[in-house]
# Entry
Amino acid sequence: MENRMRSVKILEELLGYFLHHGIEKLDISFFSDEKMLEVTVKGNTLTPPEDLSHLTKLLNEPRKPEYDEYYWSLLGATGKRQEFQLLGALVDEGDASFTDGLLSIHIRRAY
# Structure
């Protein structure tokens, strides 16, 4: 799968997380080229999602390049938008934070 489509799948999963938590007005910073993907999504909410620390942990699990093709095929397959276990295995690092009503998620992946 080409990197452009991988970048789109990652962004879709991040957007799905925000929408799942009722955050519908988002600011998105997206950069993708042949070497790297960097995405930051931010949105305002009154309370932090209960699974925020779990999300951060999953986004920083060691990347599993040997499973890339298999995991890419599974990402988004269920339509439930709760596949961060897979997403964490496909990105190099991620951070999720909640400060003063602003939820922010940043991920990075080298291609």
About this structure: The chain is about 35% helix and 30% strand. The mean pLDDT is 86. Strands lie at 26-32, 36-44, 93-99, 102-110.
